[in-house]
Amino acid sequence: MTGSANATRVLVLNSGSSSVKYQLLDMEDGTRPAVGLVERIGEETSRVVNTGPAGAGKRERTGPIPDHAAALKAVADELAHDGLGLDSPELAAIGHRVVHGGLKFSAPTLITDEVLAEIERLVPVAPLHNPANITGIRTARALRPDLPQVAVFDTAFHTTMPEYAARYAIDVETADAHRIRRYGFHGTSHAYVSRRAAELLGKEPEEVNVIVLHLGNGASASAVRGGRCVDTSMGLTPLEGLVMGTRSGDIDPAVTFHLKRVAGMSEDDVDVLLNKRSGLVGLCGDNDMREIRRRIEEGDESARLAFEIYVHRLKKYIGAYYAVLGRVDAVVFTAGVGENSAPVREAAVAGLEELGLVVDADLNAVRSDVPRLVSPDHARVAVAVVPTDEELEIARQTFALVGAGREGRGRAE
Ligand SMILES: Nc1ncnc2c1ncn2[C@@H]1O[C@H](COP(=O)(O)OP(=O)(O)O)[C@@H](O)[C@H]1O
Ligand SMILES: CC(=O)OP(=O)(O)O
Ligand SMILES: [Mg+2]
């Protein structure tokens, strides 16, 4: 590993199926000199938005960006434009979000050829995500082969799940032969948010039991006991669990045989149906909760039903994880929908007063980007909103790993 002692910055790359989010974080002074994203990759109208530090110095351009490699080049150009290029001596490492780490990776990992090969082996179980992560890693390594690159896995936080929560009730030999089990995702977010929730309650993570509801485009719930994940709603792939923007979440697996046998659909057709044409978009044509709420206000029935299905599933998971944990200190909402949609939060806990769950309408209506309680003072269980910050968590874990490497080498030299 290289990097001088004054290399205090980490570039975080979060490559999604059609977007790359990037942030440059300074681990010494806590600033974020660069923040931005490339979206709609592969379309004619791709967009590069460089938000700049704290929203200052925003730049935006539109034009075709054919693939993730080109997107990474665009990110490098944006950084160079601000004098923050990848050749900067201040750069200590690049941290990559990697969605599927299988069973091998339960901690942030320095990327080697072997690690990359293992991430590639997991593509079949994260087809929307791992290929993008791999391109991000390859491109970044080509641009800065000397710099440590670290993978931070979505699955890592969930490796503490007990065997009875992680296993499906299917033939053990088949399951083991094909490594079929529940891995869980969004772990970086669940870890960060559950820790911040403990802070908000004035407690140590070890002292509290929390249910985290990460509701973005992808959505998942987790039950966290004393800082360790004991159950989560996503499974072998990020398809299981909650209703999402475009994914069905839980479904009778027989639906898939039925579609193949009766509707003549291929494996790929079913895959696309459940991952891209289901969830909110499949139910009502929109996957953005803002648009769905607007349509409900106008009396649109399909939007209303989509909302009700979404919330009903959410409520079932709150109940299930309440039972798993036995005692719950907080139910915490995070990510795009969880942080911004007061109606979703209100509806998700409506009728759960007997469980100690109540939302205060005034507190819930407040818009803010700081962690906050939305339950009344006297509530038995706190209901909270905690904005997630996967990039900060990835940067911290990356810097800790690289820093440890530097110290270790320092001692050895
Ligand atoms: N002001 C808002 N009100 C309601 N929902 C919102 C708002 N802003 C964003 N969202 C929802 O958040 C989603 C994106 O969440 P986000 O966590 O950014 O997703 P991802 O990281 O998976 O791309 C949008 O699709 C939309 O449904
Ligand atoms: C794992 C997953 O669903 O990620 P995202 O929400 O970024 O699609
Ligand atoms: Mg997300």
Which descriptors apply to this entry?
binds acetylphosphate; binds adenosine-5'-diphosphate; alpha/beta; 413 residues; Nucleotidyltransferase, domain 5; disordered C terminus; 6-stranded mixed β-sheet; 18% strand; 39% helix
The average pLDDT value, as a whole number, equals 93
Q: Give me the CATH superfamily of the largest domain.
A: ATPase, nucleotide binding domain
How many helices does DSSP assign? 15
Total domain modules: 2
CATH C-level class of the largest domain is: Alpha Beta
Q: What is the element string, with H for helices and E for strands? A: EEEEEHEEHHEHHHEEEHHHHHEHHHEEH
- The low-confidence runs, each spanning 5 or more residues with pLDDT under 50, are 408-413
Oligomer: single chain
Radius of gyration: 21 Å
Please give the order of strands in the largest beta sheet. 5-4-3-2-1-6-8-7
First-last Cα distance = 13 Å
Query: Which structural category fits the helices and strands?
Result: alpha/beta
Helix content: 25-40%
Strand content: 15-25%
Could you tell me the CATH topology label of the largest domain.
Nucleotidyltransferase, domain 5
Instruction: Tell me the overall shape.
Output: globular
Bound small-molecule species: adenosine-5'-diphosphate, acetylphosphate, magnesium ion
- Tell me which CATH architecture of the largest domain applies here: 2-Layer Sandwich
